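Incident review: delayed structure delivery

Summary: a single-chain prediction request sat in the queue longer than the usual turnaround. Root cause was a stuck worker, restarted by the on-call engineer. No data loss occurred. The affected request and its eventual output are reproduced below so the record is complete for anyone auditing the incident later.

Affected input:
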Amino acid sequence: MRQAASLEPELIVSPKPVLAMLLFIGPVLYLICALLGQPWDFLAPIMTLTLILALCAAVGWALSNWRINIARWFTVLAVSAAICFAEVLLGAPELLVLLCLTILLAASMLGVSWAAVIAITETLLLVTLAHLGSLRAGQPTIWVASFGIWMTWGILLIVYWPINGVIDWWQTYYQRAQALLEQARDRQADLSQTLEDLANANRQLSRLNLLTQRLHAEAEEARRAKEQFVANVSHELRTPLNMIIGFSEIMLGSPNTYGSQVPPSLLADLAVVHRNAEHLKDLIDDVLDLSQIEANQMTLTREHVRFQEIVETAVVAVRPLFASKGLYLETDVPKDLPPVLCDPTRMREVLLNLLSNAGRYTQHGGVRVRVWRTGNDLLVSVQDTGRGIATDDLGKLFQPFQQLDGSIHRRYGGTGLGLSISKRFIELHGGKIWAESQPGAGATFTFQLPHNEPPTSEIGDFSRWLTPDWEFVQRTVPSKAPRSELRHRLVLWENGPPTLKRLLEHRWVDTEVVAVSNLDAALAALAETPHQALVVNDSSVTGALERLGSATLPYGALALVCSAPAPMDSADTLDVSDYLVKPVSQEALLAALDRLGLPVKSILIVDDEPDALQLFRRMLNASGRGYRVLLARNGREALDVLHEARPDVMLLDLIMPNMDGFQLLTRRSDDPILHHIPVILVSAQDPAGQPIVSSVLAITHRSGLSARQLLTSIRALSQAMTGVGSIDDPVRSASQSG
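Output delivered after worker restart:
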């Protein structure tokens, strides 16, 4: 706790008012004496005293601006010296009584303690000067002056003593009140934070409830669609396959039915058609069974079979593929393998998938199938000499509809479903499958099967976690939690200034915008609470899509990527000289060139529209000013022309392919050679009169877009682009469309 003495610095006054008084005392005293008709012999010492006081005031004022404590001491000492000097100069010993005033100044500017030091110093000074004969005052005057000094200090001490007590009491209670106030503020802050957290939790629960209802409806719709799909596939695909298989069997079994001799080559081709039709029928059955696997309704037809026969059948089915590509297909299967309890159809499908993949992705060399026994397990490996698989991609192989990149599908075909089905078949048998590979060293797929009956899963039905004694108790006390309005939530990642954030907050006041600065923060915000979408604002849409593709977005995350530069409120925002809005007349174009105030001989026009290039060139040539006109269709061509020809002015369109106007302006600003070339923007506006702020909008979804979602998005975007409907109230629009 602070003592009262520590408050003395707060009671100390500035020396500047005293210095101002010293500055005016001399002239006032001189003026009074002159008006009273005093002779020059009396006025001359007063004039000298006036100059001394003015000099002391000036020095003290300068010191107060430099060191305030030094200025206080100088003021007190200067007043004391001035009084002593006046006593000697004017021959008035009674002026020494004024030294008591210096005690008042010392107490007000230095404190009572230092005032005692000043009193002791002045007393000793008076006694010393009187003993040396430097003062005209006699001993009685010296004693009177000393008595006045100590009397003044005593009165100050009597006055300050109760004041210090009151200050001490006030300080004690003030600190106690301050501590209570801080506690109250902390409690209030904790309460406000708790209420805010509760409101935020309520918002999140509301979002989760809405999301749960939506997901439940979508799951129910997906279940019905799956059942309908199974029924349609069972009928629509099996019927034509039945015709193909039936007619091919008739042609192969009874070729004479058609009345003429069937060529052997045709019979061989029909055998291939029949074999592949049978395989397609089995494959359809497996795809249809995949839905049963996901619903835990898949049943296996187990029997003890010789695995050598399964391998041989699969090898025979794929050997034409290997022969057509000049690849070898070797098998290493022991003849003394005991029978294996499995579903032969499913195991044959697994081998066919692995061999077909190996044959498609191998260009040189071949494939080796190896079967061996380890303990009570049977291991089967399919090793190829293909291009290999990166370590980071191995985890994607067994995911449904996953392929390493889009080029694989274009070159080799397939849907990316085979390995996923094979993995599920192996797991249903109680085994496991894995892949080993290095880029350029081929790949090896190995699966393990138990010889005996696999153990049943220890994970029972979820109902085993439910207790019959539990009962629902209705809440009787109403909740006092604050209810906040549920707002749509967008996570916004901008690689640059917060242009889109300001636009969203201005237009969509009922939407919560969570701004982040990097991809990691965006992923954290997406995982924290439910959201509507991730909005990415980046000058390079392609780069943003690549970064999103390499990141792992939460399931169902919708990402919107656009390129919205800084708002074009003025030409200075983009570091350009002028800004023209299409359509541009010849008069406006020439006026913009005149406003530059520079001699213009060569002009570079940058626009991706050939008609616009032709129009502006005609305008400049028709002006009769003899301009040399250079043309460029995009930013890259414009950079080449700028470095080669160094035009005097550049007319620039903002929206262009390859490199748009914003990117070109950035490159120009970074180039010290091109930075001085003035730029006049020539760009368009949309029908609503709003400047074009983004040239592209890309949509990506973590789990892909269904046909319904794709058509709905196309309709919504087409309405927005044509001006149908309102874009200022996304919540109301969504609720109406939903």
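Verification: The mean pLDDT is 76.
Action items: add queue-age alerting; document worker restart procedure.
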